[in-house]
Design brief:
With about 100 residues, this protein is an alpha+beta fold. Helix content is about 50%, strand content about 15%.
Length: about 100
């Protein structure tokens, strides 16, 4: 699903770009690698909490990068509502 989002150009990667997208209201979902540094994790989660953007911890940085056809990525932001909802449903276990 992340690869499709990347091909649709509805994905932002990189810490500074993602934080800018969260601040501007473009980000609908943020994915943070489980092996992100403590400083990066705190910065991203604090911004997401303040701006009320859902933030999910995903697998490690290499799997996030591989999912979008790039090298290692620590943080990604989805900018499309429908794609963000679909990814969120895939990440959330069924009750």
């Amino acid at each position: 699903m992340l690869g499709l989002t990347m091909r649709a150009r509805k994905l932002i990667s990189g810490e500074d770009s993602v934080i800018d997208a969260v601040r501007s209201g473009k980000a609908r979902l943020v994915l943070l690698a489980s092996d992100a540094s403590a400083n990066t994790a705190k910065k991203v989660t604090d911004k997401c909490r303040y701006y009320e953007v859902p933030c999910h911890t995903a697998s490690d940085r290499y799997q996030l990068g591989r999912a979008i056809g790039k090298e290692a990525r620590v943080v990604l932001a989805v900018t499309d509502d429908n794609l963000a909802d679909r990814i969120r449903r895939l990440l959330t276990p069924n009750p």
